[in-house]
Amino acid sequence: MSDQIQEYKACWKQAVDAAEKELIQLYSQYLQSDQELLKENLQKYNQQDKRNEVQNESCPQDNINNDEEEDQQDQMGHQSNIATSTTKEDFVVNQEIKRELIREVPFKDEILYIYRITYQNGDVYEGELLNDLKDGLGTYYYENGEKYDGLFSEDLIHGYGKYFFIGGHKYEGDWYQGEKFGMGILDFSTGDRYIGGFYKDAFDGEGTFEYKNGDVFKGQWKKGKKNGPGEMRYKDKRVVIGEWIDDELQPF
Asked: Which residues contact 229 (CB under 8 A, 6 or more apart)?
């Protein structure tokens, strides 16, 4: 299993690298977002004579983007509740009605046994088992049309994996005991995209939110909202650098 996990980690790294290259191509002038540089740039902006003009022009647009982002976060929260419903307790309640060995796959010096489990509510799991629990590589098909493809551990989504939501959203990245946890990419069906850290299913840590209209926010997140130093770059070349608290840009 260690070889498989390493291969999946390599695939995940390639996906992250490709996403980062895409952003670099679209925004070649994008600044590095470590905290020291952000504070230095903020001081420079505070010294400019046209600071008030930039602030007045940017605040209305920022409020519009905040409204759009809140809508996306509401969507994410709803989808996350579906994604994280796969717990040990749920699997106990969701009784299986059929289990069968569907194929044997040679893998280096071992044989991987792939099972199919059909559950009473219509869900289907295809993948590896360990001690009668989902463990290793597998795919879980939800009765409502959603799908998870990736790693499991002790009956929980755990490790690297992809989750396809019924609304068209897709998450690819790290999971910890059924929750988005670590680095990930969340693509919304609307065309928006988030790349960065997650903690308990919410944006957390350093991350980049790319809006479908061309605006980009890069900075710190906590509990799904902008919290800490950040930089908003608008498609019309305007730049706002500052501190955010719960999605609100703080006055200079």
From this structure: 33, 35, 38, 39, 42, 219, 220, 241, 242, 243, 244
